[in-house]
Amino acid sequence: MAVTRTFSIIKPDATRRNLTGAVTKMLEEAGLRVVASKRIRMSRGQAEGFYAVHKERPFYNDLCSFMTSGPVVVQVLEGEDAVKRNRDVMGATNPAEAAEGTIRKAYAESIEANSVHGSDSEDNAKIEIEFFFKPEEIVG
What we know:
Homotetramer. Helix content is 39%, strand content 20%.
């Protein structure tokens, strides 16, 4: 397996409950290395741009409002098959369906407030990383 990168967000529901360290620990224990990380307050424009792919979906406005409701932690993760590894440790979007030992099973409050976001492909990881990070901010 090749070492690749993926993008992760620790969402407002998790930062509000001071779970940044606990979530990061689970990511690291899954074999992912944090090579860039910053705590930000996403602007409405950033949220709308980041989630533009969902613009026509009925949940778009609520999603943008949620993601701007508090601080988030955006991260670049590195590891073998990083996208899959991150998605495995995150668990199913619906925490009721998430496997034991996953972030969403442990910490998600609901299907909407599910504590983390992770890229769904290497192509999207590249786009999402570039949305929030300059190359010099990634220090792996």
